[in-house]
C-alpha cells in the first residue's frame, strides 16, 4: 500500500517512518511512503504558500495555487488513491473508518494543513475531510501519520499476526482485555490463574468479561443495548446456563469493582479533609 503526504514539512513524515513497525513494513516493501511539498509549486522568492484571510481574522490561510498543484502532482503519481484532507472539520476517525480504509483497495494521499487552515476551494480536489478528534493541532502531519499507522496494521505481514490488529481495542467494538507476560509474579502482583491454566474456552470467556467490564466503566457508549441490559437489569428467565453463568460472573466483577471505587473515593475524601484541617491549623498558628 502506498501513502503520499502533501506536506510543508516532509522531514516530519520521514522521521516518523524511520522507526519500529512502519520502518520494517517499508523495508519489506509492504508500505511505500513519499511526500510532495507545496512549496515546490510556488513562483516567488519566498516560496509563499499562505496569505491573510479575506474578511479579516487571525492567522494565515493556505493558498489554493500551490496546494492544488501539489495535489494534482500527487494524483499523477497515485491516480487511484483516495485524497484525504486532515482538518478539524472532517468526520471523526474511528476504528470502523480505519477498517474501511484498510479494505478499500486504494492507496492514500493525505493533504496536511497548517496555519489557520485551507482555502475552502482546495477541498474541490479532495475526496473527503478527516479529523482525529475534537481538538486542534498545529498541523495535519501527526494526524495523517496516526491514520497511516492505524491502516498499516491491517496490511498482511506488517504485524506478526493479522489477528493482533483484529483483536485490538475497538476492532471488536469493546475496549481490550488486560494483557500479561512473564514473570508470573511481579512484586506481589500475579498473572490471573485462568490465563495460566491452558483452558482456551475459559480464557476466551475471561477476556470477554474483562473487555465488557472495562468498556462498561470507561466507554459505556460502546456497549449495545442488550449488553447494558444484561449488566444492569434482571437477566431474562429463558437463558442457557452457560450464558447465565457468564453474565452473573461479570455482574459480580462489576459490583466488586464499584465497591472498590467507592471505598477509594471515601479514602480520598478523608485525606482531603485531613489536609484542609491541617492547613487551617497551620494558618491559626
Note the overall shape.
Answer: extended
Radius of gyration: 26 Å
- Helical region count? 10
Instruction: Compute the number of strand runs.
Output: 10
Strand order across the biggest sheet? 2-1-6-5-8
Instruction: Report helical residue fraction.
Output: 40-55%
Structural class: alpha/beta
How would you concisely characterize the structure shown here?
The chain is extended, with a radius of gyration of 26 Å.
From the structure above, extract its key features.
285 residues; alpha/beta; 3-stranded mixed β-sheet; 14% strand; extended
Would you write up a description of this structure?
The protein is an alpha/beta fold and 285 residues long. 46% of the residues lie in helices and 14% in strands. The protein has helices at residues 10-16, 20-27, 64-77, 95-102, 141-152, 162-167, 193-196, 200-218, 225-232, 241-284, and strands at residues 2-6, 32-36, 50-51, 61-62, 82-92, 108-112, 117-118, 128-131, 185-186, 189-190. Strands 2-1-6-5-8 form a 5-stranded parallel β-sheet, with helices on both faces. A hairpin with a 2-residue loop joins β9 (185-186) and β10 (189-190). α4 crosses α5 and α8 (200-218) crosses α10. The model has no long low-confidence stretch (mean pLDDT 93).
Amino acid at each position: 500500500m502506498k501513502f503520499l503526504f502533501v506536506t510543508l514539512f516532509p522531514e516530519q513524515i520521514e522521521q516518523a517512518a524511520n522507526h519500529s513497525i512502519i520502518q520494517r513494513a517499508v523495508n519489506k516493501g509492504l508500505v511505500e511512503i513519499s511526500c510532495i511539498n507545496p512549496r515546490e509549486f510556488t513562483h516567488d522568492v519566498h516560496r509563499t504558500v499562505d496569505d491573510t484571510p479575506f474578511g479579516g481574522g487571525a492567522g494565515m490561510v493556505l493558498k489554493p495555487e500551490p496546494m492544488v498543484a501539489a495535489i494534482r502532482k500527487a494524483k499523477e503519481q497515485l491516480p487511484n488513491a483516495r485524497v484525504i484532507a486532515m482538518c478539524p472539520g472532517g468526520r471523526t476517525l474511528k476504528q470502523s473508518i480505519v477498517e474501511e480504509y484498510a479494505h478499500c483497495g486504494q492507496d492514500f494521499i493525505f493533504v496536511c494543513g497548517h496555519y489557520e487552515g485551507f482555502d475552502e476551494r482546495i477541498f474541490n480536489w479532495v475526496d473527503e475531510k478527516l479529523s482525529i478528534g475534537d481538538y486542534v493541532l498545529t498541523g495535519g502531519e501527526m494526524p495523517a501519520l496516526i491514520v497511516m499507522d492505524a491502516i498499516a496494521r491491517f496490511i498482511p505481514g506488517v504485524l506478526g499476526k493479522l489477528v493482533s490488529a483484529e483483536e485490538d481495542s475497538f476492532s471488536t467494538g469493546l475496549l481490550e482485555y488486560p494483557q500479561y507476560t512473564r514473570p508470573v509474579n511481579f512484586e506481589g502482583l500475579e498473572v490471573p490463574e485462568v490465563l495460566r491454566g491452558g483452558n482456551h474456552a475459559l480464557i476466551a470467556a475471561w477476556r470477554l468479561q474483562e473487555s465488557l467490564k472495562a468498556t462498561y466503566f470507561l466507554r459505556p457508549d460502546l456497549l449495545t443495548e442488550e449488553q447494558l441490559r444484561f449488566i444492569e437489569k434482571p437477566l431474562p428467565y429463558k437463558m442457557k446456563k452457560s450464558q447465565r453463568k457468564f453474565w452473573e460472573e461479570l455482574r459480580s466483577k462489576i459490583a466488586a469493582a464499584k465497591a472498590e471505587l467507592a471505598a477509594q473515593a471515601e479514602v480520598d475524601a478523608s485525606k482531603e479533609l485531613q489536609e484542609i484541617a491541617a492547613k487551617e491549623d497551620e494558618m491559626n498558628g
